[in-house]
Amino acid sequence: MRLSVQLLLKYKYLLLFLWVLAEQAGLPLPSAPALVTAGALSAEHRMSFPLALAMGVAATIIADSVWFFAGRKYGARVMSLVHKMSLHPPTCVRHARDLFDRRGRLFLIVAKFVPGVSLVAPPVAGQHGMGFGPFLLLDGIASTLWVSLMLVAGRYFGDVIKRNVKTLDLVVHFSGALILLAVAGFLLDRLHRRRVILKALTASRVDPQELKTRLDAGEPLFIVDLRHPLELLPDPFMLPGAIHFSPEELAAHQGEIPRDREIILYCTCPSESTAANTALILRKFCIERVRPLRGGFDEWKRLGYPLEPIPPVIPFAPSRQSVG
């Protein structure tokens, strides 16, 4: 708190503008403390409430407009970038699209108050072909409401401090510990979420026997061999109908992965770690029908199930679907 006050008193509106702009652009720099501090300083007439509001709204609209046009022009590539930048759960794009389907254009106002979705909403609006005029109007309303809420909270806090100076001393004294606790809580929450998802993926693994039965029945599946190229040299074979890609290549082509069938991933790592982590990455792109192969390539081979020689060149082509 003390650092925020000192910085705002020195640079005032320029710092506030850049701080909000950085967060809305996707940097992990929460602007809420700066806005709340600005609101508290306005209670002491050390900052102007209307000017702080104008700076915050302008920064938000500028950043959102850039994301809007990026989503309109680059589509899936921008969604991939947003996923990498987001500090929130990997379902943010799906939530934004669900809000768009349920609320229509008004989802922009709702999304501004939903953690994680706020960053994704502008490119989603651009990707869905929304006009810039309606976007600018609704985003302006949402930005004004959001910035006002932060400033009013700070203004109320500032009024409390004016009536009881000891409150400020307590906040300053424990502010460092509170920040550390907040960061630790955030990291623990992310680790917990990751463990829950990995546990669910482990439980959803497909057994080699089940996979062979489904292949024999001619069920369309999308099977991906995730082994390292060096692992292919002594064993230049793969499962029937599979394609070979590194996890990075698969993620880069996530827009071409079929969503109408199950994705089967396999590797040779202990506990299918590469397949599980790749499935975790694909879930960030809302590809949820992903199952690692229990035991991976080694278990399939040990059971004597059929294998195919690896072609010399395997271009990415979703039309090459796994068939029995």
Question: Which keywords apply here?
Answer:
324 residues; elongated; 2 domains; mainly alpha; disordered C terminus; Oxidized Rhodanese, domain 1
Structure description:
This protein has 324 residues and is mostly helical. It folds into 2 domains: 2-173, no CATH class; 203-309, Rhodanese-like domain (Oxidized Rhodanese, domain 1), CATH 3.40.250.10. 64% of the residues lie in helices and 5% in strands. The chain is built from 14 helices and 6 strands. The chain has helices spanning 2-24, 32-43, 49-74, 76-85, 92-103, 107-111, 117-127, 132-163, 165-203, 208-216, 229-232, 247-252, 273-284, 296-302, and strands at 222-225, 237-238, 243-244, 263-266, 290-292, 308-309. The strands form 2 sheets. A 4-stranded parallel sheet has the order 3-1-4-5, with helices on one face. Helix 13 links the parallel strand 4 and strand 5 (290-292). Helix 8 (132-163) packs across helix 9 and helix 9 packs across helix 13. It is elongated.
